[in-house]
């Protein structure tokens, strides 16, 4: 004989069995009677906040297709950076893309003295639709050569630091690499022209024409500066003596109609310290690879001045371009607004409006007392 309690247990068992059968056979019933759904009736929904639901694609209006130019130069951007420079170089690259490269679609080459991390690569690749390559610098192109007297080099660094010479203790490997090795990297062998880009720069204006084609069509080899200024004498005390020694031994390599007047006020007897600021640089890789500059760099390298002093790539490039190219082959990009702390070039007048520039025209380094642009102007007068 069944007791009342057994009837109750039998009834509950039957109800639970029917519930499980319906849950498996009827999806909507299962959802409606799930524990989580019942709990939501008491505590409220636990769904994601609305902002986590992406805006539907239908709201987006993609950029209208841009008509790519009918021809391009054989050129690439070059960026020498470390993994730790990611934020700074992303800022620079985003400006390059927005102001110029979304329309012209030139590739990028990133160089580092150690492998780039996957995170670095992923962030960079997200900024562009064009080709990007990542390369590691060969150790013998980056590190101090074994023949350099380290005691002498160390003393030089210590002396410069003690005397508060700017960058006196740093960047020697980088300066030597940029002076004579970057254009030898295997990833750049396929290219003729390059545009050097540094972290944390500002590109103030739209660049609606192709500077690379200007170089190619007008036979420019160093169409590449926006700022020119004086070098610190304390970093290059014997550089000009080495230059004069090379010229005396190789007079046939000096180009007729060169830009010596930019470098010297006394026909080459002394150096006035003017140079093109090479953190912005658009140039012909074949010029650096050519006989004149190659012999010039090898001679300078043998003197050890990149380590015994602090010869920078800016004066080395500038002297090389001024001596081994015609002055007409060196170009000032007056219409490209650019800033690398602490100096900037801001286009003036109609150029400012044409480029939709956002820099203050009153903040312009062109003819400040420390600028060398007036000396560049004079070589054409």
UniProtKB/TrEMBL annotation:
GO MF, one annotated term: alpha-1,2-mannosyltransferase activity
Highest taxon above the source species: Eukaryota
Cellular component aspect of the GO annotation: Golgi apparatus; membrane
Active site residues of this protein: 281
UniProtKB keywords: Signal, Transferase
Family listed: Belongs to the glycosyltransferase 15 family.
Protein name in UniProt: Glycosyltransferase family 15 protein
């Amino acid at each position: 004989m069944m007791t009342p309690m057994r009837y109750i247990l039998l009834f509950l068992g039957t109800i639970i069995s029917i519930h499980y059968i319906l849950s498996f056979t009827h999806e909507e019933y299962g959802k409606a009677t799930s524990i989580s759904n019942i709990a939501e009736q008491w505590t409220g929904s636990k769904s994601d906040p609305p902002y986590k639901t992406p805006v539907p694609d239908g709201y987006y209006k993609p950029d209208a297709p841009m008509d790519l130019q009918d021809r391009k130069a054989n050129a690439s951007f070059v960026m020498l950076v470390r993994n730790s420079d990611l934020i700074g170089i992303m800022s620079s690259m985003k400006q390059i893309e927005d102001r110029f490269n979304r329309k012209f679609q030139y590739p990028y080459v990133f160089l580092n003295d150690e492998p780039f991390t996957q995170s670095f690569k992923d962030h960079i690749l997200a900024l562009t639709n064009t080709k990007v390559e990542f390369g590691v610098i060969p150790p013998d192109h980056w590190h101090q050569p074994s023949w350099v007297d380290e005691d002498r080099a160390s003393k030089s660094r210590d002396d410069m630091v003690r005397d508060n010479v700017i960058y006196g203790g740093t960047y020697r490997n980088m300066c030597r690499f940029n002076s004579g090795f970057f254009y030898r990297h295997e990833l750049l062998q396929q290219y003729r022209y390059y545009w050097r880009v540094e972290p944390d720069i500002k590109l103030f204006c739209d660049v609606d024409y192709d500077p690379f084609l200007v170089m190619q069509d007008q036979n420019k080899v160093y169409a590449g500066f926006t700022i020119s200024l004086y070098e610190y004498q304390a970093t290059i005390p014997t550089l000009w003596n080495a230059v004069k020694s090379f010229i005396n031994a190789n007079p046939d390599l000096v180009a007729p109609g060169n830009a010596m007047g930019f470098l010297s006020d006394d026909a080459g007897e002394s150096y006035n310290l003017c140079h093109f600021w090479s953190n912005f640089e658009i140039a012909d890789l074949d010029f650096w690879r050519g006989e004149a500059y190659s012999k010039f760099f090898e001679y300078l390298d043998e003197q050890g001045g990149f380590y015994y002093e602090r010869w920078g790539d800016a004066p080395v490039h500038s002297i090389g371009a001024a001596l081994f190219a015609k002055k007409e082959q060196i170009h000032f990009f007056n219409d490209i607004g650019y800033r690398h702390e602490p100096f900037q070039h801001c286009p003036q007048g109609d150029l400012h409006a044409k480029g939709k520039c956002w820099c203050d025209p009153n903040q312009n380094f062109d003819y400040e007392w420390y600028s060398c642009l007036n000396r560049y102007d004079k070589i054409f007068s």
